[in-house]
Specification:
The protein is an alpha+beta fold. It folds into 2 domains: 62 residues, Orthogonal Bundle (Arc Repressor Mutant, subunit A), CATH 1.10.10.10; 163 residues, Chorismate lyase. Helix content is 27%, strand content 33%. The chain is elongated and about 65 Å long.
Length: 238
């Protein structure tokens, strides 16, 4: 039987020895790790690359290598379709920065998803989400403009769209459908999330409707960093 490569054994040893290092404190440098474990930098680099592939560490240019802390992101028809509520329930303290909503003509695909007639307008909102000042997710929401009049004047820069839909407009948002997959994001999203290159991220697509009226409220596409989130989809009771 072929023995396990040295770098794989080393990756386990690194995580075991430094499991108590806080996530906001850098691990020793490659040079120092080589001295600690008595191997060359090439082997250390291979071990760290393996840990990064498993989303157990994060390399930050100019700052060092850090252990990751992943949070469960639960998706269910019974849970509010709110990023803020979902992440807080997982034990993190998120914040969101909203762009100024823009009104434009709906595309054919958007009309089909949102059930709109030809010539209908939509309100588009872009968001960046953070945990501890680190960008962890982006989202683009497309809403029927007729359903959210004056949204630009109502939604604060750091406000919750789910909260505005509930409190101001009187809707009861819930997930009508949701889809997730790994996908390489566009360059601008990679840059916003502080990624090296364009590694696959978790792409969430979904339609939010009003549970009482059935009115389609929001089509959303979000990218979530897989080194930060573990997406759990619940289809029924366990």
């Amino acid at each position: 039987m072929q023995s396990e490569p040295i770098y794989l054994k080393l990756s386990e040893q690194i995580m075991e020895q430094f499991s108590d290092v806080p996530v906001n404190r850098a691990l020793p440098s490659e040079h120092d790790l080589g001295n600690i474990f008595g191997v060359n930098r090439q082997t250390i680099r291979a071990a760290l690359d393996e840990l990064e592939r498993r989303w157990l560490i994060r390399k930050v240019k100019g700052s060092g290598t850090f252990r990751t802390q992943r949070f469960e992101y639960r998706i269910s028809r019974d849970l509010a379709p709110s990023f803020t509520q979902t992440v807080r329930a997982a034990g993190a303290d998120p914040r969101t920065i909203n762009s100024k909503p823009v009104i434009r003509q709906a595309s054919p695909e958007e009309r089909d998803i949102l059930g709109l007639e030809a010539g209908s307008k939509v309100t588009v909102l872009e968001r960046v989400r953070y945990i501890d000042d680190m960008p962890v997710s982006t989202a683009i929401s497309v809403l029927p403009s007729a359903a959210v009049p004056r949204l630009a004047a109502i939604l604060a820069v750091d406000g919750s769209l789910d909260g505005v839909l509930r409190r101001h407009y009187g809707y009861s948002p819930h997930r009508q459908w949701s889809q997730s997959r790994l996908s390489s994001p566009p360059n601008e999203i990679s840059e916003t999330l502080g990624l090296r290159g364009r590694p696959p991220q978790i792409l969430l697509r979904g339609l939010i409707s009003c549970s009482e009226s059935g009115k389609r409220l929001e089509y959303v596409e979000s990218y979530l960093r897989p080194d930060v989130f573990d997406v759990v989809t619940e289809l029924g009771q366990c």
